[in-house]
Design a protein that fits this description.
8 helices; 5 strands; alpha/beta; Rossmann fold
Length: 233
């Protein structure tokens, strides 16, 4: 099994601790092949809003001015069976570098030119915070994965009310680790059986909603050309 891990911060802190727990649980089932994306190291630039990803190229993002960073990232995502996004909560939201990643890949939303490979992938969104804000962080990231077309999304968040994982009250820490292990097992089962589980109703609904919009575009519009080629219109 191939799992891509997106690290939402270069800081080796509490969110990285959750990744260690998840990997330990996954590795107990089989040998997992991991590919890691470290932000902002692997994507040090912001989206410029140039629209090259949407209006040009044979596929979404082909001509992104930051393609030396975005193309290797997309290759890792598409080659994986499951995708973990681990993001600490900064200022009541996702980190700026995670937002920058999703800005670059909004061109692959269902409403534009989605990658079919995403339709059979499983996501796992993890967020930690010393205080509040993990709910919004997980919600935002999960919504982006949904618009990528992912089949299932497992979610985990924790407000630690402590500066470090080890400084949490023991009862709270043990409960958090037990729940995280349970979520990791669910992620493994879903990813292992990703071709057997039913299609995502949410993804099908989004395609149904956007179909009339895309169909209303001119015949030369990149999104419409792409949708027709995929047989979605």
């Amino acid at each position: 099994m191939k799992v891509c891990v997106i690290h939402g911060s270069n800081r080796k802190g509490n969110t990285d601790k959750t990744i260690d727990i998840i990997k330990e649980q996954l590795n107990s089932f089989e040998e997992i092949e991991y590919s890691d994306i470290y932000l902002p190291k692997d994507l040090p630039r912001f989206c410029t809003g140039c629209f090259a990803c949407l209006s040009t190229g044979d596929y979404a993002g082909q001509n992104c001015p930051n393609k030396q960073y975005t193309h290797p990232i997309m290759e890792k995502l598409l080659a994986s069976d499951g995708i973990i996004v681990a993001c600490p909560c900064y200022a009541l939201a996702e980190t700026a570098q995670v937002k920058a990643l999703f800005d670059h890949f909004a061109c692959t939303f269902i409403s534009h030119r989605a990658n079919e490979e995403m339709f059979d992938k499983v996501g796992f969104v993890v967020s930690t915070a010393a205080g509040a804000g993990t709910g919004r962080t997980v919600s935002t990231i999960s919504r982006n994965l949904l618009f990528w077309g992912m089949k299932r999304i497992v979610k985990y968040r924790i407000s630690m009310w402590a500066d470090h994982w080890e400084n949490m009250q023991e009862k709270k820490r043990l409960k958090a680790e037990k729940l995280l292990q349970k979520k990791a097992r669910r992620f493994y089962r879903l990813t292992k059986n990703r071709y057997k589980i039913s299609k995502s109703l949410s993804v099908q609904l989004l395609r149904f909603i956007f179909k009339p919009l895309v169909n209303s575009y001119s015949d030369t519009h990149p999104d419409k050309v792409y949708w027709k080629a995929k047989g979605w219109l």
